[in-house]
Amino acid sequence: MSDVLSAPHRLEYPYRRSVGPILGRFLAGLREGRIEGIRARDGRVLVPPQEYDPVTAEALDEWVPVGPGGEVVSWAWIAEPLPKQPLPRPFAWALIRLDGADTSLLHVVDAGAPEQMQTGMRVTPRWRDERVGDVRDIQCFVPVAG
Amino acid sequence: MTDEPVRSIRTAVALDYRYTPGLAASRFLRAVAEGRLIGQRCPVCGKVYIPPRGSCPTDGVPTEEEVELADRGVVTTFCVVNVPFTGHQIEMPYVAASILLDGADIAFQHLIQGIPADQVRIGMRVEAVWRPRSEWGPSLENIAHFRPCAT
User: Fold this and answer.
1) B53-56 — which CB contacts under 8 Å span 24+ positions?
2) Is the ipTM of this complex over 0.90?
């Protein structure tokens, strides 16, 4: 109905959240181009690291370098990315188990087409040139041969 | 220094809507664009609502009769705002007030200026200060604020 007005309305929340000491060190590592996990009491290496053991709830502090390469455990293809998503072209959200880790990191794989995606495929990070200490310091992961 | 842990991250959220005020409020806003304030009267209880919503919340009937209201009225309650917040656009302190226009039965919100914040009181007579006509659009921002008046 032409009688009814309408207007764009943007609702914005400028949140900033504190990350705590463990994620704080993890993100500082990303800024330096380094990925670190943390060892749980049962010996598993958690990436991203957790502040407390998921089973015993004890504080964790044994850092373990992991990656940078890893393996896609699971993925979902995004054929039509939304404006604020990490890449302006089709990509995959993927759970990636980095070498040396026992858990998976949710990140982006820039594979070009869903035919290029496969569970178990090898990927490696593509780092941003300017890093600030954020999970997006890894722009995305890219497939590697073999 | 470069190994200093990250303390916090920005996690901004933005939601993009297209807001549609509905037929009654659209007519109200079009009238505001011409410098007129239009309310609607309930055919059952006779109350005049502004801004109009197209129905009476008490009687649940459509409100079709339009009533032109004066751009002056009385302060029914107010709040002196001293605390800045992200995105605020008005100089502190300022007064947000509920204003009951003459002829209306419900107050609406606007700013009171032209008087020190600590001298605003309930019951004070106020009148609209309109922005220059060249700046008018379909928005209550056409009224810059309300200021005290004699009658």
Assistant:
1) B53/B22, B53/B24, B53/B25, B54/B22, B54/B23, B54/B24, B54/B25
2) no
